[in-house]
Design brief:
The protein has 451 residues and is of the alpha/beta class. The chain folds into three domains: 188 residues, 3-Layer(aba) Sandwich (Rossmann fold), CATH 3.40.50; 130 residues, Rossmann fold (3-Layer(aba) Sandwich), CATH 3.40.50; 98 residues, GMP Synthetase, Chain A, domain 3. 31% of the residues lie in helices and 22% in strands. The chain has twelve helices and 21 strands. The strands form six sheets. The chain has a six-stranded mixed beta sheet with strand order 4-3-5-6-7-8, sandwiched between helices. Helix 8 links the parallel strand 5 and strand 6. The protein is globular.
Length: 451
């Protein structure tokens, strides 16, 4: 198969522009949201001939999509059957409303997703001899990460076992415990583990306590949360306690809107666009929304080039990062890479007047191997008074007597990193994170907003 990931950039751009023109025609014919947007802006089909013309469009934001997800579905009756049949619906989680938002996939799109998962697997170094263990939870709403593990194994020709962790559903007791998940990985001698980082951390801690044998594991495929260098090393160290020998940590910048993620070819290589014939990425200036050159930090935006269900143009994903179009020095692929560690918009917050990066705070706490679990709670001295002084409380699970010797060091390190002295609360790890949910909420802000 001729691989677009190794084609010269000018040829890739020709392919993308041809696909973009077809996508625009479909949007003019039957995309309610963009039909309205085109009309408001006085745009005709001929005005959008290449991806460079995307700058004629304003960005699409999550609030647009969340407010009316049905208006982002193509509705064209004379498309072929595979382009019209609804194959599945997955849901985005973590929205500000607390309600998941549907993302629609047709048969055409599902076939594209399988093609995409093969691309991702090849970049990440998956093998058809792998045995994949899917540790993503079975959630009340269909979640892309859980489904993608199965699809990836299907297209790569690998057996997949799913642990089916998650919050129990009393009427049909199909969910399993973390102990079951550990036994499943041991019994099947899984070589490749799919997981969200915070769950994997708890999984490895519990496995070491149970003296599990994970000597078969060679690779952890992680998505759903940021993975710092410090966390990578911690996960490797904890995996080695159960016999894993120098496992690879492969991180994906997963997106429901992609039905996959941008992936690493090797650790710290940057996140490759696995299918430039399906997706076009831009970096936008945070204020003007103009396209930024390579290396400049801005908002990451996605455009679909070949979809028939939910379709998004110039969609702002919520990450601040940067791109490069230089050939990858590790694998030689020519697709663009996300090279700056993505920071979620909103990760900066003020505590007692100090601007604090919540991810930096988490990294400081992750750097203590003695801490099994933690959670930061931002509140006020008097919760009833919106003008009361901010308070940072850190809930910690530290086994044995070590907490007494660590207390001063944790307080000092957090204060140095953030300028704020925290209060520490030591408790059992299961009171911080029950292990059944998709991932832990690391920072909870309970402060009342004024103004």
């Amino acid at each position: 198969m001729d691989d677009v990931l190794h084609k010269p950039l000018d040829e890739v751009h020709r392919i993308q522009n041809a696909l973009f023109r077809k996508m625009v025609v479909l949007c003019f014919r039957g995309h309610p949201f963009y039909q309205k947007k085109f009309k408001e802006m006085g745009l005709e089909e001929q005005d959008l001939q290449s991806t460079n013309d995307l700058e004629k469009l304003p960005p699409t934001f999550k609030k647009d999509y969340m407010s009316d997800p049905e208006s982002f579905r193509l509705k064209i009756d004379d498309l072929s059957l595979p382009e019209r049949i609804l194959w599945d619906v997955v849901f985005t989680a973590g929205t500000s409303t607390g309600q998941p938002v549907p993302f629609y996939t047709t048969t055409h799109d599902f076939y594209a997703n399988l093609y995409l998962q093969r691309k991702c697997g090849l970049i990440r170094g998956f093998k058809n001899t792998d045995i994949m263990a899917n540790l993503y939870p079975l959630t009340p709403h269909p979640h892309g990460a859980f489904i993608r593990a199965i699809n990836s194994g299907t297209i790569m020709g690998c057996p997949v076992v799913s642990a089916l962790t998650g919050a129990p559903y009393p009427e049909f007791p199909v969910h399993n415990s973390i102990d079951y998940a550990i036994e499943l990985v041991e019994k099947t001698k899984a070589t490749l583990i799919w997981a969200v980082p915070s769950f994997l951390r708890k999984f490895l801690i519990t496995a070491a306590e149970k003296k599990a044998d994970f000597s078969s594991i060679r690779l952890f495929a992680l998505s759903g949360e940021r993975v710092s260098g410090g966390l990578r090393q911690e996960l490797k160290k904890r995996a080695s306690l159960s016999g894993a020998k120098d496992p690879i940590i492969s991180v994906s910048l997963g997106m429901t809107e992609m039905q996959a993620g941008c992936v690493e070819c090797t650790e710290f290589s940057g996140f490759h666009n696995p299918a430039p014939d399906l997706f076009f990425f831009e970096i936008l200036d945070e204020k003007t929304y103009r396209r930024m050159p390579d290396g400049e930090l801005g908002l990451l935006a996605l455009t679909h080039l070949n979809r028939r269900g939910t379709v998004l143009l110039r969609y702002v994903l919520g990450d601040m990062t940067s791109l490069t179009h230089q050939k990858c020095p590790y694998c030689g692929r020519t697709s663009e890479r996300i090279v700056a560690n993505p920071v979620r918009v909103g990760e900066l917050t003020k505590i007692r007047g100090m601007l604090v990066n919540k991810e930096t705070l988490q990294e400081q706490l992750m750097s203590f191997p003695q801490i099994e679990e933690f959670q930061v709670v931002l509140t006020t001295v008097d919760p009833e008074d919106p003008y009361s002084m901010d308070e940072m409380i850190i809930r910690l699970a530290v086994p044995g007597p070590e907490k007494e010797t660590l207390e001063k060091e944790i307080i000092q390190r957090v204060k140095t990193a953030t300028g704020v002295k925290p209060l520490l609360e030591f408790m059992d790890k299961d009171k911080i994170y029950d292990g059944q949910k998709m991932k832990i909420i690391r920072v909870i802000d309970l402060r009342q907003k004024t103004g």
